[in-house]
Each structure stands twice: as structure tokens, then as C-alpha cells.
Write a structure and sequence with these properties.
The protein contains 17 helices and 15 strands. The chain has helices at about 10-20, 25-30, 60, 70-80, 95-105, 120-140, 160-165, 170, 190, 200-215, 240-255, 275-280, 305-315, 330-345, 345-365, 405-415, 435-459, and strands spanning about 35-40, 45, 50-55, 110-120, 145-150, 180-185, 220-225, 255-260, 285, 300-305, 370-375, 380-385, 420, 420-425, 425-430. It has a seven-stranded mixed beta sheet with strand order 4-10-9-8-7-5-6, sandwiched between helices. β2 (about 45) and β3 (about 50-55) form a beta hairpin. The chain binds pyridoxal-5'-phosphate. It comes from Roseateles albus.
Length: about 450
């Protein structure tokens, strides 16, 4: 029986009765009631009460081509009618998976000719752990076990993904991280480097990797993993000196370099992959989200020549894989998505037009008395809420964390029909890549209004 004529309150009650949401205080949600999203078009969502909302977060950093793209919808319907599912185990394959692997090799940086498909970014990072360890086993260095990630990095929610990430709240539950994962501090100039130039800080932050490698013993370290630009951690754009120095250090000690491209991949930073924007050459890349613009779950690992050669030529059977590795419907949607990105020159649109425009409009917010720093890279941007700005200290000082100023600002975003995320007191956006300048102006108007209302409440 259709339940589509339920009221919002009825939906909320059913939601609270049965649905355990991710990263959610279950009891708190039941008390407040969730917002039920019922439809979407282009960059807008509508809730069950008919309110229109500008989606400044592309769903969850994924709906890069915006909602309602017919070619993706038709690709799914066509593939479902023809062959909704078949697996890729036991020497079988489906055509969409083969074709998607080909296209991914075409758009990836030189040397990436192979892909391992998963159903999500977290599974992709689990695959990274398996592959990295297998690689060193095959190279005759099984003692190289340790993978180094970063505090406040995010690599997913499975045991390995959450371990590679450096989210203290996640580590506090369930005995994480798993053994042989280590972390260094993040390259967050605003928090750790204000006494020096951004460039000098970038070198210093990369130096923490070398210190960690030497402390652990270089012969024990297998790989370093990082997001080119930290997303969930608060859109932390590292100084330009950071990644080239990380690359130099990994090369010096022979350590594998892994780029988690789950957010940064497929145009978000103005190139196909974030490592291209940040100027480094990884050995492995995790992807998900933007590969299918979130229309359907899909992820994977792009495997560079150094690792692929060993796994293929010396590895024998790789005892790893998922039911949905290379899911034909997911791959068909991803193919339609990548075709759209290519035919409509979306990556160039981000690099040459809309990304620089977002950066310009965000930089203007630095004049606001609540804004201590803005950062952006392609179609992701952040502003830091602070108090007490003076000409001598234009970056101001942090609010007491118990004031939860980010949540106050988020409350106004909610009220004004804007999805903007609060990471502590850092407000972030990652809107669809197909946005126009007029739509950016509309979003910036809403952001300014929310900042003004927050300022008024705090004054
Ligand atoms: N890696 C990064 C950088 C992410 O941002 C995310 C999700 O936000 C993941 C991995 C995990 O992806 P998924 O939620 O698809 O498992």
C-alpha cells in the first residue's frame, strides 16, 4: 500500500521508530524529528513541507552534475532492463564495467591503467589497506605494515577506513584504530601555523611525516594516505608547498603514496583529480561519490603502474572483492556521468570560470566581522567563524567551543533554505560543479544573511 499521502509528522514518527541514521544521536533525532527531503532539481531540494533549499553540499559531496540529469536516469533504466546485475568474480565481466575501467584509465593521470571496483569510498580504502600490504608482501618486505594518515583526515566508516582517518570521535568507539595505522597532524595553517607564512608552514607540516617515518622506522612504513584537500575535516586547503614535499619524503623512503580522491576526484578541484591540482603523483587513488555523481553507489581504487605491475605479474589470486565490485547498473550510470562531464566541459568550467568566481566571492567574506579566514579550491570553500578581529589580528580568536557558534550559524542556514555544513566553527560548502555565476550569487547572498543573523544573535 502506498504511504505517500502521509503527513510530515507521520513520516518523522516512522523514521524515529525504525531508522537508525548514520552519524546521528538516535534519541536526539527522535525528539526533534528529521527533515524529510522529497524531491530535487538542478541545485535545489524540496522538503516534505514544500520548502525550497539550495544544496550547497551536493548531497554529501557527490551530486556533482546536479539533480535531474536525464542521461544518468536513462542509463540506469536501460541497464536495469538489459542486465541489472551480474558479478565480476570467477572470470566473468559485464560490458559497462569493462567500458568504465577503460574510461577511468583515459581520464586518470599517466600510469593509471587499472581499476578495482567497490561499492563505496570506505570499501575503497579497505581495499587500499589490503593492496598496500599485499604489495609489500610480494616485494619481500612483509614488515612494511604501517600506513600513516592524518589527524582530522576522513577515509570512511569501515574498520579500516575509520582507522586510516583521524577523527577522534570515531576512534573513541569500537577500539580503533586497528593495529599498524599511525597519524600525523594535519596541514591546517589557521590552527597550527599562524606564526609563519603559509608556504613555510606547508614545509613544516610535511616534515611531520618524515619525523614520524624516522620514529617508526622507515623499513616498517608501507604507505602514506591523505585527501588532497581535506573535506569532512573542514575544507582544509594545504599550502602549495605541502604535497610536493610529501611526495619528496615518500620517494626518499620508498613509501607508497595514496591519494584519497573520494571528494576531490572528477572535477571538484578544477582538474580530474585533486592530486593534479595539488601537484603530486600518487601510486594509488581511492574514488567514489563524484564518479557517479551519487546517483548510485560506486567506488574503487585506481592502481598505478608501480603497484599494478607487482600485483598482476607476481600476485596470483588477490583474495578480495565485493558482490557489487563492477556492478553493471552502477557502472552504466558512471559512464553517463563521465560522458556528461566531458561533453559539457564541466572540469574546465570549474577550473577556468566557476571555481575562481567562488574563490573571489568567498574572499569578499573576509570583511565580515565574524570571518577570520576563507579558503577555497575549485568548488569547495570554507570560512572560519571567529571573534575579536582587529587590524593587528585580522584572523581574530576562536570562540569557546561550548558556544557552538557553528551550530548557531547552521541553524540560520537551515531557516534560510541553504545547506551549508558546520565543522566546529568552520562553515563549508561543496556545491554542484554545474552551478552558474547567478546561482553562486544567490548562494553568497544566503551565506551573508546567515552570517549577519549569527552576528546579531551573538552581539
Ligand atoms: N574518503 C573520503 C575522503 C570521504 O570524504 C569519504 C566520505 O565522505 C569516504 C572516503 C568514505 O566514502 P563512503 O561514505 O562512500 O564509504
Amino acid at each position: 500500500m502506498s504511504k505517500s499521502n502521509r503527513t510530515t509528522q507521520e513520516w518523522q514518527a516512522a523514521d524515529a521508530r525504525h531508522f537508525l541514521h548514520p552519524f546521528t544521536d538516535f534519541k536526539g533525532l527522535a525528539a526533534k524529528g528529521s527533515r524529510i527531503i522529497s524531491k530535487a532539481d538542478n541545485i535545489y531540494l524540496w522538503d516534505s513541507e514544500g520548502h525550497k533549499i539550495l544544496d550547497g553540499m551536493s548531497g554529501l559531496w557527490c551530486v556533482n552534475v546536479g539533480y535531474g540529469q536525464q542521461s544518468l536516469i536513462e542509463a540506469a533504466a536501460k541497464q536495469m532492463a538489459e542486465l541489472p546485475f551480474y558479478n565480476a568474480f570467477f572470470q566473468t565481466a559485464t560490458m559497462p564495467a569493462i567500458e568504465l575501467a577503460e574510461v577511468l584509465a583515459e581520464i586518470s593521470p599517466p600510469g593509471f591503467e587499472h581499476v578495482f571496483f567497490t561499492g563505496s569510498g570506505s570499501e575503497g580504502n579497505d581495499t587500499i589497506v589490503r593492496m598496500v600490504r599485499r604489495y609489500w608482501d610480494l616485494k619481500g618486505s612483509p614488515e612494511r605494515q604501517i600506513i600513516i594518515g592524518r589527524i582530522n583526515g576522513y577515509h570512511g566508516s569501515t574498520m579500516a577506513g575509520a582507522s586510516l582517518g583521524g577523527m577522534s570521535g570515531m576512534h573513541a568507539q569500537g577500539g580503533l584504530p586497528i593495529p599498524n595505522i599511525s597519524h600525523i597532524e594535519q596541514p591546517h595553517w589557521f590552527e597550527h601555523g599562524q606564526d609563519m607564512s603559509r608556504e613555510d608552514f606547508g614545509l613544516k607540516a610535511a616534515g611531520w611525516l618524515e619525523e614520524k617515518i624516522l620514529a617508526l622506522g622507515a623499513d616498517k612504513v608501507a604507505a602514506f594516505i591523505g585527501e588532497p584537500v581535506q573535506g569532512a575535516g573542514g575544507v582544509i586547503v594545504p599550502p602549495s608547498t605541502y604535497w610536493p614535499e610529501i611526495q619528496r619524503i615518500c620517494d626518499k623512503y620508498g613509501i607508497l603514496l595514496v591519494s584519497d580522491e573520494v571528494i576531490c576526484g572528477f572535477g571538484r578541484t578544477g582538474n580530474w583529480f585533486g592530486c593534479e591540482t595539488m601537484g603530486f603523483k600518487p601510486d594509488l587513488m581511492t574514488f567514489a561519490k563524484g564518479v557517479s555523481s551519487g546517483y548510485i553507489p560506486l567506488g574503487g581504487v585506481l592502481v598505478g603502474a608501480r603497484v599494478a605491475k607487482v600485483l598482476i605479474e607476481e600476485g596470483g589470486e588477490f583474495n578480495h572483492g565485493f558482490t557489487y565490485s563492477g556492478h553493471p547498473t552502477a557502472c552504466a550510470v558512471a559512464l553517463a556521468n563521465l560522458k556528461l562531464l566531458r561533453e559539457q566541459h564541466v572540469v574546465e568550467h570549474v577550473r577556468d570560470d566557476i571555481g575562481p568566481y567562488l574563490a573571489q566571492r568567498f574572499a569578499e567574506l573576509n570583511e565580515h566581522p565574524l570571518v577570520g579566514e576563507t579558503q577555497s579550491c575549485g568548488m569547495m570553500a570554507a570560512l572560519q567563524l571567529v571573534k575579536g578581529k582587529t587590524p593587528d589580528k585580522p584572523t581574530g580568536t576562536a570562540f569557546a567551543s561550548e558556544l557552538e557558534v557553528g551550530m548557531i550559524c547552521r541553524k540560520y542556514c537551515f531557516a534560510n533554505g541553504l545547506i551549508m555544513r558546520a565543522v566546529g566553527d568552520r562553515m563549508i560548502v561543496a556545491p554542484p560543479l554545474v552551478m552558474t555565476r547567478t546561482q553562486i550569487d544567490e548562494m553568497m547572498g544566503l551565506i551573508r544573511r546567515c552570517l549577519d543573523q549569527t552576528w546579531e544573535e551573538l552581539s
